[in-house]
UniProtKB/TrEMBL annotation:
Gene designation per UniProt: leuA
Enzyme category, top tier: transferase
Name of the protein: 2-isopropylmalate synthase
Catalytic activity: 3-methyl-2-oxobutanoate + acetyl-CoA + H2O = (2S)-2-isopropylmalate + CoA + H(+)
Database matches in InterPro entries: 2-IPM_HCS-like, 2-isopropylmalate_synth_dimer, AIPM/Hcit_synth_CS, Aldolase_TIM, LeuA/HCS_post-cat, LeuA_allosteric_dom_sf, LeuA_bact_synth, PYR_CT
Length: 524
């Protein structure tokens, strides 16, 4: 085998399933195992067969149905565990039994309540027994990183003497540090030269957030198998995340020189499947598979990525199978380039002053909304186009609403001549009050024919779109307004409808009777 090829041992279905609250049935485990095979992992640790009849059945089903990877079952250093594991994986193309016993004094004294001598004997017997049942036997000295290195070496020598084919060095409680872990492995290679003839493996936990860093240090020290789990699942803070270590090796391959057999384009699918079946969501800012991992929200980054992706991305989202995720997210930190590009996607070719005006409205909206969606943008732009044909402008308004007295509205309007006029009114409801306050300020007797308000987008911070039809001196016209505040949306719509109807009245008075009515533009 290529000495630079790293064996990917996936333990999502064993250590990953040890995450509190996860219990996968045989069908669910099989579905994940099939995806792991598509992903191209080399070994699937399918479960702990002695743990329950269900887990035994799940491991057996996977062993029978999943082609490609080695299928492993975990076993304590007990004959019954080993026999159950061997039976469960027996029908696999390539079965493996993974047996383990602690070598740290903390575990030997307090958990096993035993002695180093007994542990040495149990390890030897366990590997020998496993080897009598299957060819491929992995041995792990549990809690090795807190154990005496000389004693661990002695146990490993016994495991090798009995025919172990892979030796795994677990950092069971996520205690070690990269330099220390690498030094521990280097020392084991010196103390147990036979380790050079088998595969040395790393199995790191994330209690201090170092699982991937420690695993990587182990690979640099000579290990060629990495035990990891999709989405970093595993006991307590989890195991090294498969996607992180695999992409680290891929992205820095030229510098590190190690490869895996993983089809990285299957990573996103594997992550989503595991998340769905385990009920463990992925944190948005998780490396590689988090929702944000390939999204850019800030204007400077968006500008860079729009000009050349590599300015702010060290890998492409396509390389991990996230083709369907949009890279540019519009929010309060976005700039004109991103807005222009998003508008272009919607079919609006805006530039110059129109872009500046849309950008101003967009920033105001982004201050109110966490994320600005395509629908919000569309509403904003059409609203901006409508604003171009308005004659009256709503400068500001105040509405006092209460259940104890009738609502009162005050408005300030800028007329087509640039004059500021004010009006106020006490109405039946806040919208009625503001509409009549606009009439009072403009000294127009417009009559409301229709009023409707719709939510443009979902959620508490949704944009509302108000539509108003007004009648003035026998003519009618419509106006629309958009805002996160429905009273403001209604007032904008009223002011625009008033501008439109007034223009119609003037035109009707000026033009011959067969003239066509003026069409308002509002769509791209
Ligand atoms: C670091 C790891 O991830 S190790 C794997 C952890 N995974 C699991 O434990 C999940 C599956 N486990 C189970 O379903 C159960 O714990 C079983 C079926 C394996 C055992 O259940 P029980 O027999 O009731 O024992 P229990 O879990 O309470 O205690 C563990 C026993 O195993 C012993 N033990 C622990 N590790 C080992 C080992 N590697 N080899 C031999 N014995 C061990 C403990 O000393 C304890 O023995 P004791 O009963 O003589 O005190
Ligand atoms: C069983 C072993 C490999 C384990 O999961 C650990 O020590 O963390
Ligand atoms: Mg573990």
């Amino acid at each position: 085998m290529d000495p630079n090829r790293v064996i990917v041992f996936d333990t999502t279905l064993r250590d990953g399933e040890q995450s509190p609250g996860i219990s996968l049935n045989a069908a669910e485990k099989l579905e994940i195992a099939q995806q792991l095979a598509r992903l191209g992992v080399d070994v699937i640790e399918a479960g702990f067969p002695i743990a329950s009849p269900g887990d035994f059945q799940a491991v057996r089903t996977i062993a029978r149905e999943v082609q490609g990877p080695i299928i492993a079952g975990l076993a304590r250093a007990h004959a019954a565990d080993i026999e159950r594991a061997a039976e469960a994986v027996r029908d696999a193309e390539r079965p493996r039994v993974h047996t383990f016993i602690s070598t740290s004094d903390i575990h030997i004294q307090h958990q096993l309540q035993s002695t180093r001598e007994d542990v040495l004997g149990q390890a030897r017997a366990a590997v020998a027994h496993a080897r009598s049942l299957v060819e491929d036997v992995e041995f792990s000295p549990m809690d090795a990183t807190r154990a005496d290195v000389e004693f661990t070496a002695e146990v490993l020598q016994a495991a090798l003497d009995e025919g172990a084919t892979t030796i795994n060095i677990p950092d069971t409680v996520g205690y070690t540090m990269p330099d220390e872990y690498a030094a521990f492995l280097t020392r084991l290679y010196v103390l147990v030269p036979g380790l050079h003839d088998v595969v040395l493996s790393v199995h790191c936990h994330n209690d201090l957030g170092l699982a991937v860093a420690n695993s990587f240090a182990g690979l640099k020290a000579g290990a060629r198998q990495i035990e990891c789990a999709i989405n970093g699942l595993g006991e307590r803070a989890g195991n090294a995340s498969l996607e992180e270590i695999v992409m680290l090796l891929r992205v820095r391959e030229a510098d590190v020189g190690l490869t895996t057999g993983i089809n990285t384009r299957e990573i996103a699918r594997a992550s989503r499947m595991v998340s769905r079946l385990t009920g463990y969501g992925v944190q948005p800012n998780k490396a590689i598979v988090g929702r944000n991992a390939f999204q850019h929200e800030s204007g400077i980054h968006q500008d860079g990525v729009l000009k050349e992706r590599s300015t702010y991305e060290i890998m492409s989202k396509a390389s991990v199978g996230f083709d369907d995720v949009s890279s540019i997210v519009l929010g309060k930190h976005s700039g004109r380039h991103a807005l222009q590009s998003a508008l272009m996607d919607l079919g609006y070719d805006v530039a110059g002053q129109t872009l500046n005006q849309a950008f101003k409205r967009f920033k105001e909206l982004a201050d109110k909304k966490k994320q600005v969606t395509a629908m919000d943008l569309e509403a904003l732009v059409t609203d901006e186009l409508r604003a171009d044909v308005s004659s009256y402008t709503l400068e500001w308004f105040d509405v006092e609403a209460s259940t104890r007295r009738p609502p009162h509205a005050t408005v300030s309007i800028i007329t087509p001549d640039g004059e500021t006029v004010r009006g106020d009114f006490t109405g039946d409801g806040p919208i009625d009050a503001i509409f009549r306050a606009i009439n009072s300020a403009t000294r127009r007797e417009a009559r409301l024919r229709e009023f409707r308000i719709d939510a443009v987008t979902g959620g508490q911070d949704a944009l509302g779109e108000a539509s108003v039809i007004l009648e003035l001196s026998g003519s009618t016209a419509a106006g629309q307004g958009v805002s996160t505040d429905i009273i403001e949306a209604a007032a904008l719509a009223y002011v625009r409808a008033l501008s439109n109807v007034e223009r119609k009245v003037i035109m009707a008075a000026e033009e011959p009777e067969d003239a066509q009515p003026l069409e308002l533009s509002g769509t791209p």
